[in-house]
């Protein structure tokens, strides 16, 4: 009986097909579409996944359990993900792997400076690339040995999650005081557009960000984004 109980308590061993088996990943990401992509990557790799969409929600998760891997998007609605990276990098005990994530490749330096072990540039859809990024950052003694299978599979997030992101932005654009959120809206849409391969939306988000940064009039950019967002929500209403 004791042997049977002991066998049930043994942590599952990673395999070549599921090299992250036994690991728990906390993904701090506000985009439903990007979160869905990370969920598929983690599950296909064998990892358990938890999700937080704000810094506040991430702190609530971290008070309850300690994940092995934390992946933090740098642009969050209640602050910069770099703040959380810095906090976790200096915490003891430290999580095994701490990764920054953004659709802006220039954000990699910010993530590394804050203490991240590595960086994921959106979009990431390759299962093999995701697994290698996590495995390469695992410390000695935790990293599984002899697992070098290269997986060329690509994951495809549910398009409903993408529409949920657009509905979220449509709500923000019509919220009183929404103008104060325009910088966040531009950043959020830019990341979502890159993840979804939506070049038209990405250009519109970049234009809004540029006009805001330079202090230029941005009313037409907001109107353009509102129209594009609505056009991407409309198909869901067709029965």
Automatic annotation (TrEMBL):
InterPro entries: Bact_response_regulator, CheY-like_superfamily, Sig_transdc_resp-reg_receiver. This is Response regulator. It comes from the Bacteria. Gene3D superfamilies: 3.40.50.2300. SMART domains: REC. The modification 4-aspartylphosphate is found at residue 73. Keywords: Phosphoprotein. It holds the Pfam family Response_reg. One of its GO terms (biological process) is phosphorelay signal transduction system. The lineage of its organism: Bacteria, Pseudomonadati, Pseudomonadota, Alphaproteobacteria, Rhodobacterales. The keyword Phosphoprotein applies. Residues 24-137 form the Response regulatory domain.
